[in-house]
Amino acid sequence: MSERADVADVIVVGAGLAGLVATYELVRAGRKVLVLDQENEANLGGQAFWSLGGLFLVDSEEQRRMKIKDSYELALQDWLGSAAFDREREDHWPRKWAQAYVEFAAGPKRSYLHGLGLRFMPNVGWAERGDGLASGHGNSVPRFHLTWGTGPEVVRVFLEPVKRAEREGLVMFRHRHQVDELVVENGAAVGVRGTVLQDSAAPRGVKSSRDKVSSFELRAQAVVVTSGGIGGNPELVRRNWPERLGPAPARMICGVPAHVDGRMLEITEQAGGNIVNRDRMWHYTEGIRNWDPIWPDHAIRIIPGPSPLWLDATGQRLPPPYFPGFDTLGTLKHIQRTGHAHTWFLLTQTIIEKEFALSGSEQNPDFTGKDLKLTLNRVKKGPTGPVAAFMEHGEDFVVRRTLRDLVDGMNSLGSTPELDYAQVEREVLARDREVDLAYSKDMQLMAVRNARAYFPDRLARVAKPHRLLDPAHGPLIAVRLNLLTRKTLGGLETDLDARVIRPDGEVFEGLYAAGEVAGFGGGGVHGYNALEGTFLGGCIFSGRAAGRALARSLA
C-alpha cells in the first residue's frame, strides 16, 4: 500500500528539538506543518530530551548576579578562537552564523526562552575552560546556564505549544515514517518519499525495528530537514574521522541513541544539497559504560571538575592543558596519538563527592524533576545517587584503600597495556608533593585554585586541593575512561535563512535545514571546536531561523 498526499504548507523531517522549534515558529504564523519521524511518539524531542539542558548565554542576568564580567566582544573572541575558521568556501556561511549566534546569545536568546517558560539555575557553570591562551580555544568566563528541568524542560516549552497546534489542526505528526528520498521538481524540493515502518511500542531511546509496512509520498511548499547527526552510527563516524585527530578508533561507545544515524545527510546530498566540513566532529574522552543501558553501547559522559589526576593507558600523566574539563578535542587528539583509546582518572572520595557530575537528564533526577529538596542534598557529604550507583555497579570504576590495591584493581579490568605500579606511584607522589606548596609549578593545581576563586565552584563544584594519598580523603578511586561519540560539527550548508545551498553556491529552492544536520547552522557554526551549551542553543537558533524565514516567504 502506498500513501500520497499534499496536506501541509511545510514538511519537517525530524521531531527533535530543531524540528519542534521550526514547527513552533511556523504555527505561530498560522502555517500548517507535517512532522515526520522514523521513531515513535515516545521519542519526541530527540537527543535534547537526554541532555543536561545547558545553554550558552552571554552577559546574562545570572552571570551578572555571580559578578561574571562578560560581553559580546569577549564571547565572539572566544568563539572565533575556538572555531579557528580556515576554509574560504566551506567556512563562508559558518562564519556568518557564528557572529549571528553570539549576537543572539548576548541579545534576545534569554528573553525568547524565558517567555516560553524556561528558567535557569542561579549558578553559571564553567565548561570547556580552554587551552590556556586568551585568543585560543575555550570560555574565558562561566557561560553554561543549566536549565531547571534539564533537557526535558527545553523540549517541553516548544512541544506543548506544538501539541496545542496539533489539536487545532495546524500540526500533524506521522511517526514511524522514514524518509528515503527528497522529491525535487524543476530544481525545487516539493516533498518526500519513504517507508512506513512497523509500529513500535519501544520506550524512548530503545533501538526500534526497521521492518517495512508500506511506502508514502508527501508534498508541500517546502521541506525542512532537522534529522540530527551521525553519533549513533560509529561506522559513519569512522568514515568521516579526520587525520588531525589521529587514527580513527576501533572501539567507541555511543553517547546518543541508534536512530541518530546520519541517513538524511546522504539523502539530501544525493538530491543536490551541499555538505561541508564533514570531517569536523565533537566526541568526548570521559565516557563510561552505562551499567543500566537504554540503547546499544550506551555511554554516559562524566562532567568532571578540574582535580582528578588524568593518566593515559600507560600511566603517564596527560600534559597541560589537557586537564579535566578544559580542551575536549585537544585531549582527544593527544589520547589518539598514544595508540590507546582509554585513559584513567585517579581521585579521592572527597573529589568525587564534589566534582563528579554525569551528563544526561536521567542521571540528574533532582534537576530534571525540579526537586529543590533533593537538589540541596548535593552540598551534603556523599556523591549523588547516580554517581554512587556507578561506583557500585559500573564496570569502569575501581575503589580501594591503598594505591597498590587500586592499581591491581585497575589491571584486573583487563585493559591493555597493564599498568606499572611504580609509574603510577611516581605520578601520584609528584603531584602530591606540590599540593602543600604556597606556590607551585603544577599547572593543574594552578587551574584548580583559579577555579576556586569563582564562588559557585568553590561552594559546590571544586574540592579544596589535597594529597591523593591522604587517607582522610579516601578511599582512592580510579575510573577507566572511553571515547564516546556525540556530535556532528559539519553538515548541510545553509544561508542565514536556513536555506540549503547547492555545491555551486546557489540556493536549493524549497529546501531548508536546521540543527545538527546543518552543523547547527551554515554547515559548521562551531568550526573545529565547541564551547559547550551551544548544541541545544544551536538547534533553537537554527530551527527558529528556518521557521521564521519560511513563515515570511510562503505564499
TrEMBL record:
Residues 9-536 form the FAD-dependent oxidoreductase 2 FAD-binding domain. Pfam families: FAD_binding_2. Keywords: Flavoprotein, Oxidoreductase. The keyword Oxidoreductase applies. Gene3D superfamilies: FAD/NAD(P)-binding domain, Succinate dehydrogenase/fumarate reductase flavoprotein, catalytic domain. The keyword Oxidoreductase applies. Transmembrane segments: none annotated. It comes from the Bacteria. This is FAD-binding dehydrogenase. It comes from Streptomyces physcomitrii.
